[in-house]
Amino acid sequence: RHSGKLSVFELFVRVTTSLLFSSLSFSPSHVTFVSELSSKPAEKLSKYGWYGNVRLQRFHVPEETAIARWLFSVTKGHNFNCGQHNVTIHIRWGAPPVINPTGSLFPNSTLWAPSLSLVLPVTSHSSTTFNLSNPAPGDWYIAAHLPEDDGLGCKPQSVGLKADDINKLCGNSSYTNSTSDGNSSLGTDIVAFNESASLLTPLLASACVWSIPVLYEEVDVLSLRFTPVNGPNVSVTHTHPTLLTYPLHTLATGGTLNLQLTLNTTNVTLGNSSSVVACLSQWAPVLKLNHSQPCQTGLFGGYGVQVNASAPKALLRLPFPQSTTWYLTLQLTCNSSDCVNTSVVNVVPEVFVSACVEDCGTYGECRLLRSYSYLYSACVCKAGWSGWGCTDPSTAQSYSRQLIATLLLTVSNLFFLPALVVAIKRLYFTEASVYLFTMFFSTFYHACDQPGIAVLCIMDYDTLQYCDFLGSICSIWVTILCMARIRHVFKYTLFMLGALLIAMSMQLDRKGLWNLLGPILCAVLIMITTWVYRGVNRRHCYPPSWRRWAFYLIPGAVCALIGVCLYIFAETEDNYYYIHSLWHVLVASCVVFLLPPKEKGREKLGWSRGWKWSWSWRPRVCGYTLCESGKDELYTVT
Q1: What is any Pfam family matched here (predicted)?
Q2: Of 136, 169, 198, which one is at a domain's C-terminal end?
């Protein structure tokens, strides 16, 4: 009982990194190369539906590393018979890779750059290596996943990324054929920047820049806010740029870097040709902001925005920003006449790190993910919406579809009412209370579980889900035990013991398949054992009536079998609303057929024969109870 199923593939990814870096020996004229091996345990892969399906691993590359080598090896298990499938691997420095395998839309004002990607086919045995000379020191991130529509129903045994011999580190670089030229140049750009970074220092020292100190505040996990020391307003002029520096540490790279620039036009009026140009860059600031190349240097490019009188606000979002120092350069651009009238303007630069883009909007939920000690966030979308921020409506569900889905899943629980009436009429009050519990929490759980805006939550979602799962399994448990017709002492003991064990299993793995099949098989085993025992003792089939078999047991068993098969084998994310509603109807209907008739030894209100109801009242005076003598008084008659 869950909204949607995700096909999980038994593919395991293990990443091993071999590093070769230089170290000075005792002799100043010699350089000694030492090697280092880093490995992570295998992780299970699944198809890509959202970023939570990606398996992310982080490796630290020390300074002065000569070669970083990754060996990716794919091994197919013996039970894999589903054709060829591909594993996609993304590599990026400084932050997790931003990927878009489905080609969905990104939110407005959200910019991202593709990372280096490799595609590995899942064959009997295939491997590929990736060598990177003079890699940038710091953290490197590797993300692996399966395609969205690849491998449905297939269960390959393992995909391992194994380490090769350390002595082969000096060999030539090898790339997969799927690596594009644009992606492979990413590593070259990083190396070139490392070689040229020292050349930028004299230029920055001699440049005329108005630098504004910035404070930062860690509000929460993946929540960081930067504030200028002198207040939110920053003065910007046309004579020289204004520079603000934002150091971004590793723990903040799993969120989204936001820049919101607001022009303060309270006391100053800009001309039509005047605007404030801003450039957000990493590694080093862009010191020349002109119209031809407003946010570009010979080595790298930044992210440019501008505000003016007609558009006083500008927004920029960067998912998974790299761990480095970010620079915001501001400068007023105007013609000669406008610059004379307005020499200085005030802008409000708001720079902050948030977990997700606008908290994933109305049709999404921001999830906090973890890869070992590294935390990052992503949006999981609902109601057919997609995209990085759940803003792509290409496959979105309409409001009428959402409403129909909610009504189907909630109204179908009313089929428990006939089962409830039959249980009360046959004096099975304990079973009836379990059915009432299940009907109530299943109705409101599905009303709260629905995506979109057709949602009603009367309490915490996790509580509703737990009670729904618990009531569903307990309903099946008590119904089958009631069919066994065992003694009341044993029956209610098994009721309680089974409920406790089911509650424990729900806490361990709420959506596990054996949480449903385990109680069913145990209860059926108890019922069959009891029926066989009675049939052997009576030398007659039990239950003895053929009408009971033809009109109740067989139809009820068929309903239950169809419901379980639909739940396990036929239910998918697309047909969930219909199949799961049918599951509600079939399970509730089978209770009406399978619940045994009233026991002959039971009277109304559930009291067994032989019980006596006695009631007496004794008055209390000042806290004392007046006693009665049980003896009869004797009178003498003369």
Answers
A1: DUF3522
A2: 198
C-alpha 573/C-alpha 455 separation (Å) is: 18
How many structural domains compose the chain?
3
Q: Are residues 420 and 346 in the same domain?
A: no
User: 69 and 129 in contact (C-beta within 8 Å)?
Assistant: yes
Shared-domain flag, residues 181 and 265? no
CATH assignment at residue 302: 2.60.120.680
pLDDT in tens, 520-544: 899 999 999 999 998 899 888 888 8
**What tokens were used for 456?**
């009603």
Looking at the fold, whether 145 and 219 belong to one and the same domain comes out as no
Q: pLDDT tens for residues 74-88?
A: 666 555 455 567 888
13: enclosing H helix or E strand: strand 8-13
- Specify the 3-state DSSP secondary structure of 612: coil
Strands (DSSP E) found in 213-311? 214-220, 223-228, 234-237, 242-247, 256-264, 275-282, 303-307
Q: Quick check: 326 and 246 in contact, CB under 8 A?
A: yes
Q: Is residue 612 part of a domain?
A: no
- Give me 30's structure tokens: 């010699």
Q: Which of 331, 313, 295 is nearest to 258 (CA)?
A: 313
- Which tens digits make up the pLDDT trace of 443-479? 999 999 877 777 888 999 999 999 999 999 999 999 9
Domain residues for 16? Answer: 8-198
Lowest-pLDDT choice from 182-196, 277-291, 463-477, 570-584: 182-196
User: What is the 3-class SS of 439-500, one letter each residue?
Assistant: HHHHHHHHHHHCCCCCCCCCCCHHHHHHHHHHHHHHHHHHHHHHHHCCCHHHHHHHHHHHHH
Is 114 a member of any domain? yes
- Give the pTM: 0.70
Domain boundary, last residue among 135, 164, 198:
198
